Amino acid sequence: MPGPSPEAGSPSSSPRTTGTSISPRRVRRRGAVTVTEQPPSVTREGITIQSLSKVYDTADGGEVTALRNIDLQIQPGEFVSFLGPSGCGKSTLLHIIAGLLPQTAGTVDVFGTPAAPGRQDSAIMLQTPVLFPWRSVLDNILLPVEILGLDRTSATARAHELLELTHLTEFAQKNVWELSGGMRQRVSLARALVTDPALLLMDEPFSALDEFTRERLNIELARLHEELGRTTLFVTHNISEAVFLSDRVVCMRPRPGEVIDIIDVDLPRPRGAEHLASAAAIENESLVREAIAEYI
Amino acid sequence: MPGPSPEAGSPSSSPRTTGTSISPRRVRRRGAVTVTEQPPSVTREGITIQSLSKVYDTADGGEVTALRNIDLQIQPGEFVSFLGPSGCGKSTLLHIIAGLLPQTAGTVDVFGTPAAPGRQDSAIMLQTPVLFPWRSVLDNILLPVEILGLDRTSATARAHELLELTHLTEFAQKNVWELSGGMRQRVSLARALVTDPALLLMDEPFSALDEFTRERLNIELARLHEELGRTTLFVTHNISEAVFLSDRVVCMRPRPGEVIDIIDVDLPRPRGAEHLASAAAIENESLVREAIAEYI
Amino acid sequence: GSGGDGAGGDDGLTVMLSYKKSIYWLPMLIAEDQGYFEDEGVDVQFEETNGSGFVTQQLIAGNVPAGWAGAPDAAVAFSKDDNLRALMCNPPQNIFRIVVPDDSDIESVEDLEGKTLGIAEAGGGEEPIVNASLEAAGLQRDADVRILPIGDAGPASLNAILQGQVDAYAGSYPDISTLTADGRLQTRDITPEQYNAIPGDCLVTTADALEDDQVRDQLVGMARAWARGAVFAAENPEAATTIACRVVPQECEDMDFATTYVKDTIGLSGVADDADTPFGHVDDSAWQTTFEVLAESGAITTDPDAGTFAGGGIAEQFASDYWDFDIAATREEARSSDGN
Amino acid sequence: MSTSTAHKMPPTRKTTVTKAGRPARRGPWAKVWPPVLVIVVFLLLWELACRAGLVNEIIVPPPSDVAVSFVSMLDKAYFWEATWVTMAETIAGFLIGVVLAWAIGTALGMYDWAKTAFYPIVVGFQITPRVALAPLFLTWFGFGLTSKVVMAATICFFPVLLNVMVGMDTVDRNARTLMRSLGASRWEEYRKLVLPSSLPLIFAGIKNAITLALIGAIVAEFVGASRGMGVLIKSLNFQLDVAGGFAVIVALMIFGLILYWIVEYIDSKVVFWRSHS
Amino acid sequence: MSTSTAHKMPPTRKTTVTKAGRPARRGPWAKVWPPVLVIVVFLLLWELACRAGLVNEIIVPPPSDVAVSFVSMLDKAYFWEATWVTMAETIAGFLIGVVLAWAIGTALGMYDWAKTAFYPIVVGFQITPRVALAPLFLTWFGFGLTSKVVMAATICFFPVLLNVMVGMDTVDRNARTLMRSLGASRWEEYRKLVLPSSLPLIFAGIKNAITLALIGAIVAEFVGASRGMGVLIKSLNFQLDVAGGFAVIVALMIFGLILYWIVEYIDSKVVFWRSHS
Ligand SMILES: Nc1ncnc2c1ncn2[C@@H]1O[C@H](COP(=O)(O)OP(=O)(O)OP(=O)(O)O)[C@@H](O)[C@H]1O
Ligand SMILES: Nc1ncnc2c1ncn2[C@@H]1O[C@H](COP(=O)(O)OP(=O)(O)OP(=O)(O)O)[C@@H](O)[C@H]1O
Ligand SMILES: [Mg+2]
Ligand SMILES: [Mg+2]
What we know:
Chain A is α/β, with parallel strands linked by helices. Chain A is built from eight helices and ten strands. Chain C has a five-stranded mixed sheet, sandwiched between helices.
């Protein structure tokens, strides 16, 4: 496959500098393509979504427009959150970017190729954690490793690190039906992270977690992001989480699913616990809240 | 069945006065039985949990203590939230109170009878929304009505009210696989509410919802609670939500699951949007946060 | 319900057949078609089965008053229950044959040593005769001669014979007529002479049933009508064929086959050659042979008395009771019939 | 084409990934012509093999002969009578077997004591070759249609029973918990949860059953009957009318397929949520 | 007892609700004695019916006679030879049928074009009564074991095929999406998701298959064989040794049950997650 090398999203090409620029930029662009400084030819490096629409045929013969005319340009290494009310098409968008759903119109290019499932350099964490009951927790985490044919020994070490990160070390050999809801979600998170993907698509990864675990994992995720420079698309309902983690927050509204606003977050990187409830963060949060509230 | 009449949890017998008492009480009791003013004989009216333990046998022959020595007294009409890290036994506790899991030791009395499943006067909303794909959204909501043999016409009217409340009116006749994750959760919520149960057990009912929908539903739930005086046990990871809704917040810690603290919330009732980010609420929230943080 | 305890009376008579309605039962087909049973005032209900075993079991169980069963099966049944009685046989001669292809160098059963003998069915009526023939020839089953069930007449058995998978074949005469009908195969009969007397299917009832005059009268009436059918067929085979093909059209897809089948059936009935002996009559000695054959082949382990079963005057008396009709009139009727 | 141009296709292009790998609907003919094609090719090869003498004609007649026999048979009253008999046996046996299996399977799946006590007996009964019990059947059910109906019913009983039981086993645990929390009686739980969610499996059992019922009826006719398509096949074979025998078999296939597709159609209509569970 | 006292039981009492309605484990005997009891009662009633003359001995012999025959048969070499033959046919047919059904079912379930083109043919083949094709089988596979093995294999083929296909249909959609997102090839998706999640159904098919294989072998022996338990039953029936015939049937049941329980045991070990899915 002539796909991009895994380094496509490496820190060197990361535009994180935008986020860490000292002068706070608060450009609000309504439902428009994010114009970047780079010429169009370079867009091959990131994710380019153009006039994307998705219409579901419903069982009663009708149609539901889940996404309408989405234009979006995501730089490699960027962390972008998607916020919006339930049913506004966030999961649908992530599925389309992952190549798991066909769009109705428009194009989606990921690292220079049209969206397609099974990219070695990407991983998606679905909204409901799908775990296989015939596999132990550890083996569930190692599933992508087996399928991508990666080295199992080093992957196992990595899986154990992730188990520790998600506080599941003692559950490595347990059956999945012995886990609580939040634990399952964490296993699913570990599975998405185990292959070190350059593109990470996460659909409400922390919704079943308590505030403290969530905060800890947020901090870890920020750290990992800054270390590894993965392009990350992150669906969440938690505004502070979105602000804390993201370079940009995409706000959406439902029926039809449209981008109503894109907020550039002006928190410096690297981010740590001290940014969690910082004045800057709270200011950003209220900006986001405002943007969304306008449409509700 | 010689169970209590549905009026057992009616506002007249509600001790909500405790919550609305003017002098703020902040009695912190560590892992202890909540001693109430009422003599023990009256405990038949509420929920009495005594020395409750739950040990799961694991598949590898070991044991997991999910709950240890829980003592709790919940007054009829009280709104109690359960907070605690993932895996601390919240779902287990709710299942036991609903009579869906056998305890290993201790007793649970609900309105004067030992916990048992299928009480007409109670409803549980599980952590994962279980919807039947062969039923439309509306018919899923009406399932409890059918099983309890209630009047379908008036129940349908009620179901439509709930659909409106959960912003799902236009989805009444849709198939469940056409819903987003958050929509499914809302259907599950509507189903739990449709029979107007005196005891409501809810396991993270709003985890998949955006902040605005969540807030709106929180306000609605508070209003309904104040109108109908249902005894409500509410699992959540959201501290502000817990504070806003509850008379008391039970904080738990994991492995083994134990009650570490019970916080009386001193927000006045009736509660509305104005209490959401009020100083009093924030003060209460930090109390809860403190209580939990101590154990993490 | 059971097979019906139609012990005569107003309910009519239930009689079991060991084989489906077919040209094999030609006299019965004709009697039915020509209304002979009504003439005799018997209301008979024939129950078709697929094997003599079914018939003898039901007889012993007392579920039916009478039935037609192959002579070997009937004899075995008698060895289990000496209450059974055989009254007449259709046909009264051996229906089982051992044959070899015309060009085979096998001349007799003795020559089968080291060869393979195909039979129609394991546990079928030909087996006792095969066993006894081998025994008489001093051959041991399996050790000296391989016995291979290849089915009754049909593509598989024809192919097996033509391909030389078996060197000889034992089956009933309809099997042989079928296999030879289209001329691809010509056969030579090597059945030892002494077994020709073994009868085909016999009308078996119980001593108890015979005590009941009403049942006995019905049986006599049935036998008379049956015998009239046999006489009719022997007199006018063409009309008999027409009648048979009307009753069982599926056996007349190939008219050559049907004609041969009818011809062989009439030939075995013995009516054409000898009008003095009642149709269906079997000698005591024939029964003696039957029992011996069965004892030799191991199917009978006790020592039943053939005389009690089929002799002792019962069969004689029965024969004289039904063979009293106007044979000439029946023949005349047959001659003038075109079968329609 | 170079990779670089491949990556720069005009923005109006649509990806053509199909949902869950299912092909787009292409009208009813798309489902009809492939099997027809396969069958036609198969028949052609068969015909050629016969003409070339590769296949022994005594055993396998050429399809053209079978077709001729088949057409001429359609005129015969005995053919339609046999068809009627066999179909009546099959359908009656099928209905009885399925209803019994459903009822008993449900009872065994619902009550553990019933399963413990009776399941081994049911299996034992299934294991017992029905053909060997033919004398019993004859005694109990007479010589007519009934014994064949019983044979057909008993042979199609077990697959349905087994699938009914497995279906009850594979019901989602959370859904069961929900029903228990609502205080649903066993019967309500069965009707509103277990039955619908095991319908795909039950239908698999039923589809098995319709084919087995036909086989059972034919076997019963082979073992002992005077009427029906089994008897017809036997007597045509007996006359070495091989083409005729095959023609009846073809007729059997056609009628069997019709019954099968009826069941399949009902399945697809009833379990409308299948691909979304 | 009045309700008021019932509500005031001492606090040490434990509720005895069982998990998901399953009974507590009571040792292996709890699974053994109920069927044994049922069988014993059944045999007693049967014996009594025979003694009282309600059932005729020539059709149904009393169990005591069958037991005597059975015991005396255990000494006979011919009995063991027949058993060996039939079991060999059954097991060989079973294995061939299951493996083929699995392979073909998987192919049909995986490739829609294969299903469209070949499924009607498979159903048509299943519908065709194998007994009617016996002449074909005998010609192609000879008069020995092989033709019986083929008969057993073809009759146990379809239930497995059908359950394999339904199993593939009922795989969780989200899980499929996950596998697709990982870029699993069809084969990997099959091996790591579809196969395990359809195992409960496949095993139901296999359990069907083992019983049908035995039936198929016996039917084939009835139609034309020189050795095996079917032949033994037939020749004992010819001798009107009904008790002997039943003894062989009992032996068949026992061997069949053993095979069945082996499959069931493997099922329970392999699909350890069954009650938790
Ligand atoms: N069936 C089971 N077998 C064994 N252990 C179990 C089982 N169910 C739950 N547990 C264990 O019991 C503990 C409590 O689980 P529970 O589901 O009650 O947690 P929870 O508080 O609801 O967590 P979450 O917030 O993640 O939903 C966990 O450690 C879990 O691993
Ligand atoms: N298979 C489907 N068929 C028809 N409509 C669908 C289907 N899947 C989703 N939809 C509709 O598309 C819209 C967007 O759904 P989606 O799951 O993307 O929402 P979401 O933003 O992820 O919501 P949530 O936050 O609740 O998960 C919804 O209105 C939903 O009803
Ligand atoms: Mg979603
Ligand atoms: Mg939980």
